[in-house]
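User: Please predict the structure of the protein below. I'd like the answer in structure-token form so I can feed it into my own downstream comparison script.

Assistant: Understood. Taking the following sequence of 464 residues as input:
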Amino acid sequence: MSDLKEFKLPDVGEGLTEADIIRWHVHPGDQVTVNQIIVEIETAKAVVELPSPYAGVVADLLVPEGATADVGTPIISVNVGGSPAGPGEREIAEAADLVPLAAVELASEPGMIGSPAPKAERQAVLVGYGVKLGTTARRTRKAASAAPAREAAAPQAASAPAPVAPPAPSVNGDGARALAKPPVRKMARDLGVDLAVLAGTGPGGSITRDDVQQAAAGPAPAAAVPVLAAGVREERIPIRGVRKHTAAAVSASAFTAPHVTEFLQIDITETMNATARLRTLPDFADVRVSPLLLVAKALLVAAARHPMINSKWDEAAQEIVVKHYVNLGIAAATDRGLVVPNVKDAQALSLPDLARALAQLAETARAGKATPADMSGGTITITNVGIFGVDTGTPILTPGETAILAFGQVKDAPWVVDGALAVRKVCTLALSFDHRMVDGDLGSAVLRDIGAMLTDPLRMLAWS
């Protein structure tokens, strides 16, 4: 008996309104179970894998790959009438509002899921489908089994529980799904490895990280390179995902907050010497130390000395919200566009811990693994334009923030030291701020303090 259920696109971030369908992992006629990854979507902040809340047979894919869907739009229909669910799964499928805790690969941060409940009552919820209080605990994982066969497979005994579909979406030549965990699939995509052609060496024939890395190290098949037809003078690229979000955000910021940008050229020689010294200390043996670490520390100290620089304009309440914590954003250019993940409560970190947090943030952003939680809640931002070989710029404020600091390239330049000309390490700082909250004297004081600390890093100790 047909019993169709439609899965609506949830809000997997904080108030997101739409997402792009990147890739379907299932097709009409495929058997799916609760928890099975069925689709990859790209929101304005991250790429997220969504699991199926239903067990059954895929009836139809309601939104094609490459299309943009609004939150709340049905994206897939599943016939749940002819597929028995495992213990406890039918209730979950019928509720259609619970998502297993490990189902969304990129949703490991608390900010990505709705308001946290006490641990004893925690239920993983896709935002927008409602939080239900209860005592539901983490459901026991079932052992990985062979992938479910297609409709031609022999039916199981009525008493046998339905097998849990493995998380890997790749399909081998014989129609079986490749066994791999979500992190392994993510690594395979990053390295350009097709899971469908690998023979897994893990338990039950599952594909491991080592399998993917070995495949990536071997000779790769020649990739098809798109070639423009002769005489084509223009190319059209759809505006989607992060690029679309960034365009809307910077436009809103530029025409909402009255920007003021001030510049300061400084002698950063002592900061460069301090950076080299830090690299030799045992506390920093496991992390790469760069001048950005001391720039970040200087900004944190300046924010503590001048709290208004770390505030927010609340138009609805007609209030200025001064924040006595710093979620330090670091602007990062990625293949998907500009993202600004942030280090939560950076002001509370020791210098070694701050170095590790910045390194982890950079690695996550470069790998395209930054989650909506990583990029939400920032309070002040640094953009390191020096890595592009430019002296400075006029950065646009991250929406909801009051200031952003641009750190330009460090280069040798003539400088007057104690009345004599010398060659020193010089860079230019630029501080953009919202003139509604920050007057010229305050903005100048913040920039001057940052410059003073980078000229003489010992001031960080005196002012901390």
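That's the full token string. Residues 63 and 272 are 53 Å apart (CA to CA).
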